[in-house]
Specification:
Blueprint lengths: L2 H18 L2 H8 L3 H15 L4 E3 L4 E3 L1 H26 L4 E7 L1 H8 L3 H7 L3 E7 L13 E6 L6 E14 L2 H7 E2 L2 E2 L6 E4 L10 H14 L3 H5 L17 E4 L2 H9 L4 E5 H9 L10 E12 L6 H22 L1
Parallel strand pairs: 3-4, 3-5, 9-10, 9-11
Antiparallel strand pairs: 1-2, 5-12, 6-11, 6-12, 7-8
Length: about 325
């Protein structure tokens, strides 16, 4: 066995022993002796030049270097075995691990997943929700859908669709604050959401919308997408005097539905609530400067299960566009 083959064999032994934190249990799983496991680990540590385990009287613990190596190996072996499954059975099976922001996953993606399940019944899917960006090096996620500005250095990315912003509130709240020909923003409570905005200020989406009104006021969009703000000085509207701030978009929209104030909504996430009359969107919408990007390590986008998921997503978007055009 050459050095590379020996290194690979020893790394596989390490990955099993590290997962079980036991040389004895690893030996049972690998069908070798406990002494053989211990020997392989010692050889691997010598090959690598650092320790992988802290050996205690009755138990094992991973060193910091061992933790990092286990994370890398787990991801690598998952990819290898996944590819073998694809090649062996010539169909989509195995597992696809997807990361997505909480509200996007719940409000947009999850209602559509039954059709994906029907189309690919032998492909197991894991969905992890996380508002911040995922680390593909240290988290076992195959691909992710981010709400972002499209900046993804060193990764493959594909814009799925742009997002738009518009204020929403309950019908009752709107009636209470609509006086004459204008909505009394000065008397309103402003609901802010910071989900998926990372380092941005909680009021950044409100500020983005206010600045966008300058373009909307002069365009034809206001008649089809809602009324524009009337009067002067709206750019300086104070949206931080009376506030409720949430780090979860669904909670912010729930607060708006319950008449607690007027919230800045991402249009794609509140379409159902608008259609059912739980919320109203009386003002013009503006481009958020962000959208939903499908992201994965470069090269992974060519794997069969990735392509299948992307094609399915694109079909969902095409169907939605066709329905809107009818």
């Amino acid at each position: 066995m050459d050095k590379k083959q020996l290194l690979l064999a020893n790394m596989h032994t390490f990955s099993v022993a590290a997962r079980l934190l036991s040389f004895t249990k690893a030996a049972d799983e690998l069908c070798i002796t406990q002494g053989a496991v211990s020997h392989r680990i010692k050889v691997l540590e010598k090959q690598l030049g650092f320790s992988l385990f802290v050996r205690m009287t009755r138990r094992l613990e991973l060193t910091a270097e061992g933790e990092r190596l286990l994370q890398a190996l787990t991801s690598s072996f998952d990819v290898i075995f996944s590819e073998i499954e694809d090649i062996k059975f010539n169909e989509l099976r195995g597992e696809l691990y997807i990361g997505a922001a909480p509200t996007f996953a719940q409000s947009w993606l999850l209602p559509k997943l039954p059709s994906f399940q029907s189309q690919y019944p032998n492909l197991n899917l894991k969905l992890r929700v996380k508002a911040s960006r995922l680390d593909f090096q240290h988290e076992p996620v195959d691909l992710a859908i981010y709400y972002s500005d499209g900046n993804h250095p060193e990764l493959y990315s594909q814009r799925l669709f742009d997002e738009y912003l518009t204020p929403v509130c309950s019908p009752t709240y709107y009636q209470q604050h609509f006086k004459g020909q204008a909505f009394e923003f000065a008397q309103a409570t402003f609901i802010h959401c910071s989900e998926s905005l990372e380092s941005s200020e909680p009021n950044s989406e409100w500020q983005r919308w206010l600045k966008g009104q300058a373009l909307v006021n002069g365009g034809a969009e206001q008649s089809s997408k809602g009324q524009a703000l009337e009067g002067e000085g709206w750019e300086d509207l104070d949206v931080l005097t009376r506030v409720y701030v949430f780090n979860h978009s669904d909670m912010a929209m729930s607060a708006a539905k319950n008449g607690m104030g007027i919230a800045m909504a991402r249009v794609s996430l509140v379409e159902k609530a608008l259609q059912e009359g739980e919320l109203v969107a009386p003002f013009a919408r503006v481009f958020s400067g962000r959208g939903y990007d499908l992201v994965c390590p470069k090269g992974q986008q060519n794997r069969p299960r990735y392509r299948a998921f992307v094609r399915w997503l694109e079909a969902q978007l095409e169907n939605k566009q066709a329905q809107e055009n009818d």
